[in-house]
Design a protein that fits this description.
The radius of gyration is 19 Å and the shape is elongated. Helices cover 0% and strands 28% of the residues. The strands form seven sheets. A four-stranded antiparallel beta sheet has the order 14-15-18-16, with no helix packed on it. A three-stranded antiparallel beta sheet has the order 1-9-8, with no helix packed on it. By secondary structure, it is mostly beta strands.
Amino acid sequence: MKKSEQPRTDPKHARIWSLFGIVVCGCLFVDSGGPSWSGSAETTSATMANVATTVEVMTSGTGTSSGSATGTSEGDPCDPFAQDCPPGFKCAPYASDGGDIWDANKCVPVTGNDQPGQGCSADGGGTSGYDTCVAGAMCVGVSAQGVGTCASLCSGSIDMPQCSPGLACFSTHGDVLNLCVQICDPLLPGDCALSSDVCVPSGDTFVCTANNWDGMKGDFSPCGYINECGAGRFCGDGGLAPSACSGAPSCCIPVCNLTMPLCLNGTSCTAYYTGNIPPKYIDLGYCGEP
């Protein structure tokens, strides 16, 4: 899934980056339902919510089948926000080439009643579009055995996405995949509900997604994936710390606490957000060059 347009926030730094990604993940977000809210209000300006153009979210799930026809509407293109398929069908993201990357949405039969937060099974893998979740949800974290957990798709619209409280809309792959994911604080280790997740920037907030840190990348290591830097870092513009990043276009930038700043390699703790700072991130900074 690739987000080809620019993030919704305007960074303080010069370069505008686009966020690309794949989240076939064992991620993040157990949604128990409840009132909806907009997780992408354009009310804040993130210093580095824009991640490097090369940044992607590494995948941990696959899908290969397209399912079998069960009605005349099956396979028709649809709007995942509007869920505009006819009764008995739902709008689901899928890989049109049978591969591992969602690139379109289509109508598929609703074959189960698994709710967000409940276990599910996926026929053909995590990118087939066919699973046992109710309309408005999809099976994520799909294992080799075809089982995972239902997660809510964002409602509302791409311009005003909505999710339950505590979740934000994570739109990727050219806005093909729009999942409600857990909001988190990168300064709080273990803030994600799943210990296997990592807290990464997305638009004007931070969200939990699958952690694909290899145990080797450290502060200011070159990176190419949004979720490969490990806890306490984000894969961002190497221009924030050009000397420390040794000229890499994107590298693992450490976060820091503005009240107790601790940065190495000639960097200093700079406020992550400018303008209207979200209260949750009032102390959030990053280690960059003065």
